[in-house]
Design brief:
- The chain is mostly helical.
- It has one domain: ABC transporter involved in vitamin B12 uptake, BtuC, CATH 1.10.3470.
- The chain has 17 helices and four strands.
């Protein structure tokens, strides 16, 4: 196991903690840079949607994982970002101008939703945001001058300084750059005073108030930041699909976002990517699994939802730290073998149990 001996205050603010991290992240960046040359068109499309979902994961994780605010309405922010980007790009706006407007509109909507949401929390907040998602979905259908209603809206490919990102390989570099920037922004946000305030509110609102943290203000900020990240994901999604309609942004999409963060690992940057990979890769795996199942099971309606539900229950009961938590345990096992003991992570498990009983 690696122990870091700090000799200066600069080490506390470094994003990369040691040379091992720098090496492996460099290897990861190199592999990603070569992906369009090594991977088929189908898997490039899967990687692109994983990166787009990761952008939404940043927003969902900030709100749920770090501030403790449950939301089932992020498909509304996602769809709004997509339609704003599509509409103004089609009007001839530059890519970054339309993207900035998508972020701004989502931040404003996030603030407006946060104000009444301050009076509720927990499952009641989830129900309130669920109502938001249903309302916005209906607005998308009825506002035909903006969204073209159920007929859908064609989207021009992203274009920056004359470079058109109209293939899976070229679009990959664009969305990868956006994800890298979003990752750095999130890391810096979470280690700032604002991020520490989010964590304090998640752990105990009463304790946070007693320490002088304005709970209401930081909840609004969390909603605004979360909506902004989700809007960026929606904007990239519009350019990825090149054709969007209100049907793309329904309630089940919001559930996927929450599921992605929980399964990946709450309050974990790495867990966002693990969760996104899980959500995107599972449908093809389930489709292949149908060939191995009896006919009556393979043709049963809702098979995918049943499998998702079983997996979610298993994670909540047996691995509350998600896929990233399981990876940490496996890594620790090999690092300190043969001195690993099952009780090493009991403290984290007991915290999760007490947290579920609140």
């Amino acid at each position: 196991m690696r122990f870091i001996f700090k000799t200066s205050y600069d080490q506390d603010i470094n994003i990369v903690k040691h040379t091992g991290q720098a090496f492996w992240y460099s290897v990861l960046v190199l592999i990603l840079a070569l992906c369009p040359f090594l991977v088929s068109e189908f898997w490039m499309a899967q990687i692109n949607i994983i990166l787009i979902y990761s952008l939404v994961g940043f927003g969902t994780m900030i709100l749920l994982g770090y501030t403790g605010q449950l939301s089932f309405g992020h498909a509304a922010f996602f769809g709004l970002g997509a339609f704003v980007q599509a509409f103004f790009t089609n009007q001839g706006w530059p890519f970054f101008a339309a993207l900035s407007l998508s972020i701004l509109v989502n931040v404003i909507l996030g603030a407006l939703i946060a104000l009444p949401a301050l009076r509720v929390k927990g499952i009641f907040l989830g129900v309130a945001t669920l109502a938001l998602g249903l309302i916005v979905e209906e607005v998308f259908v009825k506002w035909e001058s903006f969204t073209n209603g159920t007929s859908g809206l064609a989207v021009k490919p992203a274009q920056i300084f004359g470079v058109v990102f109209n293939t899976q390989g070229s679009f990959f570099y664009l969305v990868l750059g956006v994800v890298v920037v979003a990752t750095l922004l999130t890391i810096n946000l979470l280690r700032s005073s604002t991020g520490r305030a989010f964590i304090a509110i998640r752990d105990s609102e009463i304790s946070a108030q007693s320490m002088g943290i304005h709970v209401g203000r930081y909840k609004i900020i969390a909603f605004m930041i979360s909506a902004g990240f989700t809007g960026v994901g929606g904007a990239m999604y519009a350019h990825y699909l090149r054709f969007i309609s209100p049907e793309n942004f329904n309630l089940f999409l919001s559930l996927d976002f929450v599921l992605m963060v929980i399964i990946g690992g709450l309050a974990s940057i790495h867990g966002i990517f693990f969760g996104a990979i899980f959500i995107i890769i599972m449908p093809p795996l389930i489709a292949n699994l149908k060939d191995l199942l009896p006919v009556f099971m393979a043709n049963a309606a809702g098979l995918q939802n049943v499998i998702y539900g079983v997996i979610l229950i298993c994670f909540v009961l047996f691995e509350p730290m998600g896929l990233y938590g399981r990876w940490v345990k496996v890594r620790t096992y090999f690092q300190i073998f043969p001195f690993y003991r099952d009780g090493m992570f009991k403290r984290q498990k007991s915290f999760q149990k007490s947290d579920r009983l609140k």
